Amino acid sequence: MFFKNNNYKLSFALLLTPGLASAAELNQANTAWILTSTALVLFMTIPGLSLFYAGLVRSKNVLSVLMQCFAITCLISIVWLAGAYSLIFADGGETQKYLGGLTKAFLPDIDTGSLTGDIPETLYFMFQMTFAIITPALIVGAFAERMKFSAMLWFSGLWLCLVYVPICHWMWGGGWLAELGAMDFAGGIVIHINAGVAALVSALVIGRRKGFPTTAMPPHNMTMVVTGAGMLWVGWFGFNAGSALTSDGRAGMAMLVTHIGAAAGSLTWMTIEWVRYGKPSVLGIVTGMVAGLGTITPASGFVGPAGALFIGITAGVVCFFATQYVKRKLVIDDSLDVFPVHGVGGITGSLLTGVFVERSLGGIGLPEGVTIPHQVGVQLLAIVVTIVWSALFSYLILKALDKCIGLRVSADEEVQGLDQVLHEETGYLDL
Questions:
Q1: Which pLDDT belongs to residue 11?
Q2: Span 229-272, pLDDT tens digits
Q3: What pLDDT is stored for residue 430 in this prediction?
Q4: 388: Cβ contacts below 8 Å, ≥ 6 apart
Q5: What is the pLDDT of residues 180-239, one digit of tens each?
Q6: What average pLDDT does the segment 75-81 reach?
Q7: What mean pLDDT, rounded, does the chain reach?
Q8: Is the backbone peptide bond immediately before 213 cis, with ω within 30 degrees of 0?
C-alpha cells in the first residue's frame, strides 16, 4: 500500500487531493467512473435527500423542504464556481496550510484538456461540487418547518464559505490536518460532523417548533421517506466509492464496505426498536441505514468488510440512543435528527477509522511507525477542531442573520405552514 515508505503523508495527500498530482494523459476508465459517481452524488441531494426530508415533515411544509434543497443546489453551484472551489484546491502559497488561493475562481485557465490527476479538472470540479451541495442541504433537517426562506439562503451561502471551505481545505486540499495524517476518505469529518454540529447549533439558536415536544409531529408521507432513503443508499456508492477517484480495487472495496455498513446499521436500529417497542418500524430501518452510511463514510477507503460490519452495528446502536437523548433528555428540536444521525455517526466512524485501518483488523494498514492509539488521537484532534470551528461560525452566522433579517417565521405563519406562507403553493390539492 501507499503507506509503506516515509513519504506516506505526501502519498495520502495525492490520493485524496489529486490536484497536487500530475498525469501524462487522460484515463478514460477513471473518467467514466467519476462521471457516474458525480451524477450519483447529485442524485443524493435531488431527488434523494429532498424526498427523504420532505416525507418526514408535516404536509403543510412538504414543498418548503423540496424548495430549500433545490435552491441550495443552485446557490452552492454558483458559489463553488465563484471561488469556493479555488479556496480549497488552488495553491495558497504561504497560506496553503490553512487556505487555498483564488487562482481557480471562475476557472479562468481550465479547458477540456485540463487534468486533475488523470481525470478532467472540470469533472473533478463537478464531483467535489456535489459534496459541497449536499453538506448545507443536510442542515435543512434541523430547522425544517420554521426558518425563513431568505434566511436559509443567506445561511447556506455564508456557511459554505466560512465553515465548509476551510475545513475541507484542511482535510482534502493539502491543509494542516492532512499533513498530520488525519483520515477522512469521503466526508465523515468534512461533511457529516461539520453539518451535524451546524444543525445542532441551528436548532438551539432558532428554537423549538410550536408545540414541540408535547404535540405529535409524525412524518406525513412514509412512502416518500422510503423512496428518498433508497435513492440515498444507491447514490452513496458514488459518494464513497467515487472518492477513490479510480475505477479499481479501492473503489470496489469502498463500495462493498459502504453497503455492509448501511445494511448493518439498518438491521441494528430495527432490532433495537423491535426489542424496546415490540414492533420494528419502517422509519427506524431507513434511519438506521442513513446512520450506517454516515458512519462508514470516513472509513470507507481504509477498512475491510469485517470492520465495516462492526462500524455499521455500532452506528445503529450509538445513533439510535443519540436520537433518544437529544430529543427526549435535552429536548432539542433538531427536527429531522441531523446531529444524532450525521454528527454522532461521523464522530463514531472517524474514531473507528483509526482502529480498523490496522492491517490485522482487515484495513489497508497504518503508516510505518504509527500505532492505533496515535492514529485515534489524530482523528480525535480533527474531530474536535471541526466541532469547535463549525459550532462557533455557525452560531455567529445565525446570530448575525437573526439581527439583520430575522431567522424565523411568525408563530401564526408557522401554524399555517411554510408552503402557503413562503411560496403560496400547496403540495396536495385537498389542503
A1: 40
A2: 999 999 999 999 999 999 999 999 999 999 999 999 999 999 99
A3: 66
A4: none
A5: 999 999 999 999 999 999 999 999 999 999 999 999 999 999 999 999 999 999 999 999
A6: 98
A7: 94
A8: yes
pLDDT for res 429: 82
**With contact defined as beta carbons under 8 Å apart, do 186 and 243 qualify?**
yes
Q: Count how many Cα atoms sit within 13 Å of the Cα of residue 53 in the half-sphere of its side chain.
A: 31
**Hey, what's the torsion of the CAs at 185, 190, 48, 325, to 10 degrees?**
110
Among residues 79, 199, 184, the alpha carbon closest in space to that of 138 is found at: 199
Q: HSE (CB half, 13 Å, CA atoms) of 336? A: 30
Q: 128-146, pLDDT tens digit by residue? A: 999 999 999 999 999 999 9
Give the three-state DSSP class for 119: strand
For residues 257, 249, 360, 237, the Cα torsion angle rounded to the nearest 10 degrees is -10
Inter-residue contact 170 to 17 (CB < 8 Å): no
Instruction: Map out the domains of the chain as residue ranges.
Output: 34-423
SS3 state at 182: coil
Task: Tell whether the torsion through CA atoms of 291, 297, 298 and 303 is positive or negative.
Answer: positive
C-alpha cell at 110: 481550465
SS (H, E, C) 121-165: HHHHHHHHHHHHHHHHHHHHHHHCCCECHHHHHHHHHHHHHHHHH
**pLDDT single digits (tens) 348-374:** 999 999 999 999 999 999 999 999 999
The packing angle between helices 282-296 and 222-241, to 10°, is 20
Q: Which residues fall within 8 angstroms of residue 404, CB to CB, at 6 or more apart?
A: none
Name the residue type at position 40: L
The tally of CA atoms less than 13 A away on the side-chain side of residue 323 is 22
Predicted local confidence at residue 32, as pLDDT: 98
Look up the CATH architecture of domain 34-423: Orthogonal Bundle (1.10)
Whether 225 and 52 have beta carbons less than 8 Å apart is answered as yes
User: Which of helix, strand or coil describes residue 365?
Assistant: coil
CA distance 4 to 370: 11
